[in-house]
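Q: Please design a sequence for this.
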């Protein structure tokens, strides 16, 4: 008999970080609101959750994050001005973000790390499995990852994390997984996890990228998790406990992602994401690509 696992409907998006890598832009604006082409980075993330069938979204925010709430709320003034002008297409753009999902907010208070941010979601999530999406990781909408993770969770139960092969020299920037194969191409079983290891001690070059589908047992573990790397309560440390003892909350699997991912928390990658997504846009792409080609040619002649 196949076991049925409860359906996943809730997504948690930690968004309390200070965004210091983008100062001064983030002095008075949350980093999640920085535009990627013409949409705030955070909207891509909420759209991704909704495409995977999760339309109950909880954002874990902090001070100075009011613009996030405003962005996903109605803006009657703007809507009525655009309605009066008969500008339907811009009106649709304004309404898109408020119609997307049922949004909820909770404040983290003290920024004590990602594990602590996830723990702040416990009262809202309750006893169901749920997804966590980190705003700095932008997954190309054409390479659905979360949907696949939900599918794997529904099949195996327990928790599922997203992994990606990275250059071994970069593994110290990520949580890193030791895995064993399952016989299913893109699915591996996690045997252990370590947060941001030195490359010499890393068990693999498989990095955790910011997508998780978690069994609610993680909350009980997070409550007892001591501060780890950087003095912060690390989600990776709690997941390591889940992986080490299946009795706690079922197995932990990994989905190895081979699609396009951008780290919008890194300035270089942020610029690359904008250029790529702009090139591929039907409205902006043709003109932008022509300009870009000419620009690169000029640059090469000059060098
Ligand atoms: C967090 C996690 C880390 C993960 C990374 C993915 O780190 O702690 O395990 O690999 O996100 O982006 P952060 O980048 O927030 O320091």
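A: Design:
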């Amino acid at each position: 008999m196949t076991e049925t696992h409860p359906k996943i409907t809730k997504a948690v998006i930690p968004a309390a970080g200070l965004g210091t890598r983008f100062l001064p832009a983030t002095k008075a604006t949350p980093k999640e609101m920085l535009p990627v082409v013409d949409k705030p980075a955070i909207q891509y993330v909420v759209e991704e959750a909704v495409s995977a069938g999760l339309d109950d979204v909880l954002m874990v925010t902090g001070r100075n994050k009011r613009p996030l709430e405003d962005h996903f709320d109605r803006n009657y003034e703007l809507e009525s001005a655009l309605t009066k002008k008969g500008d339907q297409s811009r009106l649709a753009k304004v309404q898109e973000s408020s119609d997307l999902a049922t949004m909820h907010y909770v404040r983290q208070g003290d920024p004590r790390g990602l594990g602590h941010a996830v723990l702040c979601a416990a009262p809202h999530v309750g006893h169901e499995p749920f997804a966590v999406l980190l705003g700095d990781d932008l997954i190309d909408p054409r390479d659905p990852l979360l949907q696949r993770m939900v599918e794997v969770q529904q099949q195996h139960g327990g928790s599922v994390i997203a992994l990606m092969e990275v250059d071994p020299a970069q593994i110290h920037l990520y949580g890193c997984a030791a895995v064993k194969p399952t016989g299913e191409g893109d699915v591996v079983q996690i045997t252990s996890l370590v947060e941001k290891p030195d490359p010499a001690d890393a068990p693999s070059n498989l990095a955790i990228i910011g997508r998780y589908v978690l069994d609610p047992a993680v909350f009980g573990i997070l409550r007892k998790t001591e501060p780890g790397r950087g003095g912060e309560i690390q989600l990776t440390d709690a997941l390591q406990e889940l992986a080490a003892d299946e009795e706690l909350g079922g197995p932990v699997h990994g989905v190895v992602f081979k699609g396009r991912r951008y780290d919008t928390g890194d300035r270089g990658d942020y610029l690359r994401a904008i250029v790529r997504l702009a090139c591929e846009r039907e409205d902006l792409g043709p003109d932008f690509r022509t300009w870009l080609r000419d620009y690169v040619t000029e640059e090469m002649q000059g060098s």
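Q: Thanks. Anything notable?
A: The chain has two domains: 10-265, 266-303. The chain has a mean pLDDT of 94.
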